[in-house]
Amino acid sequence: MKEYTAGDLLEAREKRAALIESLLKRYNTPLLVMRVNYPGLKKTNDLTVNLIKDMTPVICTLLQNKIWSKSVLQGAEGPIFYAAVNQEAASLKKIAIGLEEDHSLGRCLDIDVYDSLGKSLSRQELGYPSRKCYLCAEDAHHCVRSRRHRESEVIQYIKDTYQNYKKETYSLDIAGLAVQAMLYEVSCSPSPGLVSKESRGAHQDMDYFTFLDSAASLIKPLIHCAKAGFSPKSPEDIFLEIRRIGQVGEQQMLQKTSGVNTCKGMFFLLGICCAAGGKALYSGLNFSSLQGLIKEMTKGLVERELRSRYSGFRIGEQVDVFALTHGERLFLNHKVEGIRGEVERGLPTVFDFSLGFYKENQGLSQNSRLIQTLLAIMQHCEDSTILHRHSFETLKEVQDKAGYILSIGGVKTLQGLKGIEAMNEDFCKRNISPGGSADLLGVTVFLYLLEEYMESKNVSKI
């Protein structure tokens, strides 16, 4: 960013006044001008630019088609948003005061309103009290004039305020995408052996609405996972935190579903991905960093949670087999690493295969795209749900059938569609559920949505 002097600042103020006069003459309508309350000479920086960037759409949404002209200019005074607004000046000023008082970032901003004659409206003439200092709650103008607070204190407050705002915003958005992905997965049909809108699949203990209940119960835990990631903590420490969040979230899910485990595996994977997304956004990293972050977060997971249990079992330690999870039993009996191994390797099934496959099939309808991607995952996935219920032979049969149906076109051909219907009927009769593949489908959709989201934000570390 360019370095400015005190002389530059004085000149910028004169230019702003001249621009305001010019805009008022051109549009003959009230003008809204928004700046960041940033002290010192370095007013144009990543923080102030991002603040104005984030607040501009908020104002545009509030005023909608009343804005006749808008622009953002940068200079010695920092980035400044100008909008000529076809609205009575006093009501426009009330909107500006509302943003300054009620929005999370409002206290960091100055939002001035000029009437069509060029008069700046004050709070006092509309019956509002003067603004309070955000550090000491005294009169803000008095604190500025007396230089009551150090520049570093004010700047740190603005940084902290913006960081907290982004943490809340990103976490809500990321968790929303995760729940969206869960709902996409359960809503597609025919999904062989799986719960959908039309069928219980191979699950007599749950239906579509049970799954909706569980997805709703996981919104808060997923938000907390994303918040845990939006942190300076190491990926390893973040993982320890989200494990605790996950334990609470599982109990909330089971309470909501009367003890039915609808999506424990998907929640485990999505919680990790939410945290990784939060960490990437906090650090100013792009989507390509996620797989590495996931590997860092889960390094040693199989050793800690599976191999150590296996070693203890082998040397004669007492192990309550009935207290083990399905994944732990599979590792003890068959050395299958399951979901833990998949995530410790950085979700290669998703990052290296299914995410690209899902993108390649975006020309299909959403439902067809989901089913086609599910089949693609099924042909490769070492599905622990199938192994828990059946055998390696059944798993191989499922993989081969999925591969064959894809080879004849899958959802793109009549023959393929008939094959999917027949597979669904067969799996429901034989109690075959490719639940592990369904979990990876949900993760695939989530990461697709998250990549789009992160690209739209174009973030940088503050």
Automatic annotation (TrEMBL):
Top-rank taxon, per record: Bacteria
GO biological process: prosthetic group biosynthetic process
Catalytic activity: apo-[citrate lyase ACP] + 2'-(5''-triphospho-alpha-D-ribosyl)-3'-dephospho-CoA = holo-[citrate lyase ACP] + diphosphate; 3'-dephospho-CoA + ATP = 2'-(5''-triphospho-alpha-D-ribosyl)-3'-dephospho-CoA + adenine
Signal peptide: none
GO MF: ATP binding; holo-citrate lyase synthase activity; triphosphoribosyl-dephospho-CoA synthase activity
UniProt xrefs under InterPro entries: CitG, CitX
Pfam families: CitG, CitX
Keywords: ATP-binding, Nucleotide-binding, Nucleotidyltransferase, Transferase
Record flagged with keyword ATP-binding: yes
NCBIfam families: citrate_citX
PANTHER family per record: 2-(5''-TRIPHOSPHORIBOSYL)-3'-DEPHOSPHOCOENZYME-A SYNTHASE, TRIPHOSPHORIBOSYL-DEPHOSPHO-COA SYNTHASE
Protein name: Holo-ACP synthase CitX
